[in-house]
Amino acid sequence: MFPIRDHNPSGRVPYVTYVLMALNVGIFLSYVPILNDDRALYALYNAYALVPVRVSDGYGFEGLFTSQFLHGGWMHLAGNMLFLWIYGDNIEEEMGHFAYLAFYLAAGVAAGLTQVAFEPSSAVPMVGASGAIAGVMGAYLLLFPKAKVDILIIFVVFFRIFPIPAWIILILWFGMQFVGGIGADPNTGGTAFWAHAGGFVAGILGALPVWLKRGGVAFWNRTDGHPPHPEAKYPQINNSRIPKVRRR
């Protein structure tokens, strides 16, 4: 089960979102040849990833930025770019191109610092744009809580697309990160749950000025939490089905 698109069209071209996606994909493709070379990959991460224990010791702060453009594999990259594509254009439209870029990078830094705060002695390198993208998701929750998001559910041989309010999928996602962070071992690899949670909260806080400028609670009341423009319409997609066989 995962989101594939929203019904919240943007009124301007999201140039910054496209550039961020291109940078992430381009940088990842540049080191694809060493993905199966553990020594070379470790050297890359050692140089550019975020290592919490280094920041705790007072150095390695550049990793707060450089780690945002590294990914651990194809699925890691694809998942992050999908979420950025779904939610990024609307936040860029609300904030403006340059403010959105600053917001995105700041959310990524806040995500990294949250990971450091909760796992200060961890020597495991952290990579990925998901902390910054979590910030975008937090902003989306604040500004468009009832925007429709299409969820694709795949179960063995059939699938179904369900439109659900954004707040359900976003709060569920945040809850999973919080619970995952509580049970995570700081000395092993895996998902940086606290970075996700920290980026999400930072995104909500960073979007507060935009929300207040829109009218705050009055903005929610005017739109009932929906985007303040007509929703996008998509062609109906029927479920895939197992062929039926009649019995005699």
TrEMBL record:
InterPro entries: Peptidase_S54_rhomboid_dom, Rhomboid-like_sf. Its main location: membrane. It is found in: Membrane. Gene3D superfamilies: Rhomboid-like. Residues 64-208 form the Peptidase S54 rhomboid domain. GO terms for biological process: proteolysis. One of its GO terms (molecular function) is serine-type endopeptidase activity. It is a multi-pass membrane protein. The chain crosses the membrane at residues 12-34, 69-87, 99-118, 124-144, 151-173, 193-212. It holds the Pfam family Rhomboid. One of its GO terms (cellular component) is membrane. The keyword Membrane applies. Keywords: Cell inner membrane, Cell membrane, Hydrolase, Membrane, Protease, Transmembrane, Transmembrane helix. It comes from the Bacteria. PANTHER family: RHOMBOID PROTEASE GLPG, RHOMBOID-RELATED PROTEIN. This is Rhomboid family intramembrane serine protease. It comes from Sulfitobacter geojensis.
